[in-house]
Amino acid sequence: MIMKIGDKVRFLSEIGGGRVAGFQGKDIVLVEDEDGFQVPMQLSEVVVIGDENYDTQHVVEVKQQKKKAEIKEPEPADKPITFHAMPEERKGGEQLSAYLAFVPIDVKELMNTRFETYFINDSNYYMRFTYLSSESNSWHLRATAEVEPNTKLYIEEFGREILNELERITIQILPYKREKNFLLKPAVDVQMRIDAVKFYKLHTFQENDFFEQPALIYTLIENDKPMKPLFVNAQQLKENMFHKSSEKAERPLISPARKEGGPLVVDLHADEILETTSGMNASDILNYQLDVFRKTLQEHAKKKGTKIVFIHGKGEGVLRQALINDLRYRFKTYTYQDASFQEYGYGATQVTIR
Question: What three-state secondary structure class fits 7?
């Protein structure tokens, strides 16, 4: 077929084509594409299209070319990171150490601030932990998570309104390592009492190695040695309260059973209401004793006529004076007097609910 200007043609050796716009010598044909560009081609590389499918086919081919041009391999920096580096181990980290930390959000406004709870893993082991609080005779799961080696993990934020929920807590820890052999460590089960009074005292929040701000930190396990429980169960408390050693003989034993019509007896001695005074100064202990005193009166506020004997001991009279001060200003309607010396010895005050 003789090729002339205006003919529809396509290329043989590559995709594309157009209309013949002219000729250069005997062997070169100028092919104009749909954008108006003229492409010189060897005459032998061009063939005339005589059917009506040319336009449709040509448009499809052009679209395919453009689509291929638009599809690019993502740049290396744009690809998602799938590699996760293993945590670095440190010298001395083969012994388990873990802590529970309470951090005031604004330590300068201690009376109004909220607090954050953290689990601190100061070892080369991964730790899977559960954090539980006591509810009557059962337990409530507050958090469970895996903590990488030498890392601290945020657990929750709370206000003082839930401090009573945190009075008794348990932390259970399962230590292990990933993708390498390791020495087996026993699981850790630590129970403790969180003293609400400490959250009102600035000095209980200390400078530490884990936070930039002061924190109240409880040891769960340190150098493979779990801390001893800071509370015992009710049966153990009874046994401790009513079977003291002979060194306390000067203080009369109080029967656990309340006599019919007799007063309720509450012993405020620190070793009776606290399983340990470790980390507490005299002011902390006094505030805790006052807290027990106030809660007892509040719990019996609706029981008019109830008599409660508080044993506070003689000592320097500081606790007794603090109780009397509370009775004068906080519980003005209640009456009080020295309790029976024959039954309770020196250092006991009887309060009557009015």
Answer: coil
